[in-house]
Design goal:
Elements: E1 2-3, E2 10-13, E3 28-33, H1 36-45, E4 48-50, E5 56-57, E6 63-67, E7 74-92, E8 95-101, E9 111-112, E10 118-119, H2 120-125, E11 128-129, E12 134-136, E13 146-147, E14 152-162, E15 174-178, E16 184-187, H3 193-202, H4 207-211, H5 228-240, H6 244-247, H7 307-312, H8 317-327, H9 336-341, H10 351-354
Parallel strand pairs: 4-16, 12-13
Antiparallel strand pairs: 1-2, 2-3, 3-6, 5-12, 6-11, 7-8, 7-9, 7-10, 7-14, 14-15, 14-16
The structure holds a DNA duplex (22 and 22 nucleotides).
Protein name: T-box domain-containing protein
Domain T-box: 33-211
Keywords: DNA-binding, Nucleus, Transcription, Transcription regulation
Length: 370
DNA sequence: TCTACTATCACATTTGAACTGA
DNA sequence: ATCAGTTCAAATGTGATAGTAG
């Protein structure tokens, strides 16, 4: 059920079911993307996210605001990455172009917000920051980072569910949200200089390279790069230090500090064409943020585990297929034709259904890292 | 030769322990 | 004894780039 709102918020509500003693009335949960203007800036140039073997934070990082939660109820908020399409890309002649079909999806991981579970009042009093979430291309990663393929496109997806502990998550109905402007291309090195400039302009951590360590002509001094003794020292440090993700892992009850740059932003200017999330290479001319209403990207409650929920809520035929594929993962990916054939109807994120089948597993993997 | 990935660099920022004073 | 504020060292994250692999 999608609701367009004048305040450019994303409203999704669960299909209504008769209120019973056991079932919670879901109401109408609303999720707003913070720093939407920044996301739009990046999206207009084709957002790229660096991924490394040891995990790299996102920039911009995901920050959302929740409202409409049931008072006095505990919720768990999670996030995962969904392939935006079924293609692999490459950067050629200052633009992205399709370089073939996507590779088999890496193991899917869910990032649980470190505050989870927490009461509704906690979630709604301030924006939720997913700053600590990291992306990696290491399929053997042991730190719980979200695994993505380089040169593939993804978008973050947020799940909200009632649960009193992380271990009861799968028994609650999910509500799923996503935002088209958060779609990005995973890369191991920046391709688009526009993105590099945007990141340097907005990311304080990049200052170290911009203002120091470089010569006036922009080349950095690398006289001692890779010296054997320095390398040995570094390797020794790596051996001695525990993994960063485990070193300062906050407890689940610890609140996340919200940085000074994480103030809520007015989303009134946020609106996106549905076409901004598609399978074609990014074309800057196609982006149009002048619409007054924000498209609602997702509409189906996400219930990967609870088959009973499917019976409770009548599903669109596509949804049934998607739900079926979630419970019974396909052995192969959808062909492009099959993929496209499922992208119809009034849903703004049909990928949720066609792509859902691409995700062969939904392990609950809670982690946080510094 | 080309493309993608990895390791490494210096420094600003963040974090948290230690300390001080009310 | 407790709390709040300050200080400071260590940890962390960042983009650029050379080297490597396929």
């Amino acid at each position: 059920m999608c609701i367009f709102s004048k305040d450019s918020k994303l409203h999704l509500s669960m299909p209504q079911s008769p209120p019973t003693a056991e079932s919670y009335q879901q109401g109408c949960i609303s999720m707003t993307l913070e720093k939407a203007d920044l996301w739009k800036s990046f999206h207009s140039s084709g957002t790229e996210m660096i991924i490394t073997k040891h995990g790299r934070r996102m920039f911009p990082h995901c920050s959302i605001r929740l409202s409409g939660l049931q008072p006095f109820v505990n919720y768990v908020v999670m996030m995962d990455m969904v392939p935006a399409d079924s293609f692999k890309y490459r950067w050629k002649k200052d633009q992205w172009e399709v370089a073939g079909k996507s590779e088999p999806q890496p193991p899917c991981r869910l990032y649980m917000h470190p505050d989870s579970p927490a009461p509704a009042s906690h979630w709604m009093k301030q924006p939720l920051s997913f700053l600590r979430m990291k992306l990696t291309n290491n399929t053997l990663d042991q730190h719980g980072h979200i695994i993505v393929h380089s040169m593939h496109r993804y978008y973050p997806r947020f799940h909200v569910t009632q649960a009193d502990s992380p271990y009861t998550v799968r028994w609650g109905p999910f509500q799923t949200f996503s935002f088209p402007e958060t779609t990005f291309t995973a890369v191991t090195a920046y391709q688009n200089p526009k993105i590099t400039k945007l990141k340097i302009d907005h990311n304080p951590f990049a200052k170290g390279f911009r203002e120091g360590g470089t010569h006036s002509h922009g080349k950095r001094c690398r006289s001692n790069r890779g010296s054997p003794d320095k390398r040995a020292r570094l390797e020794s440090e790596v051996r001695c230090n525990s993994p960063p993700g485990l070193q300062r892992m906050p407890s689940t009850s610890q609140s996340v500090k919200v940085g000074k740059d994480e103030q809520p932003l007015n989303l009134s200017a946020c609106s996106l064409e549905q076409e901004s999330l598609h399978t074609e290479p990014l074309d800057l001319q196609e982006y149009d943020y002048c619409c007054e209403e924000q498209m609602v990207p997702a509409s189906m409650p996400y219930q990967p585990y609870r088959s009973l929920e499917y019976a409770r809520y009548p599903l669109h035929s596509n949804e049934v297929d998607a739900a079926h594929s979630l419970l019974h993962p396909p052995h192969h990916q959808l062909s492009t034709a099959e993929h496209n054939s499922q992208q119809h109807g009034y849903y703004h994120h049909p990928q949720h259904y066609s792509q859902a089948g691409d995700w062969s597993q939904y392990p609950l993997f809670s982690y946080s890292c510094r």
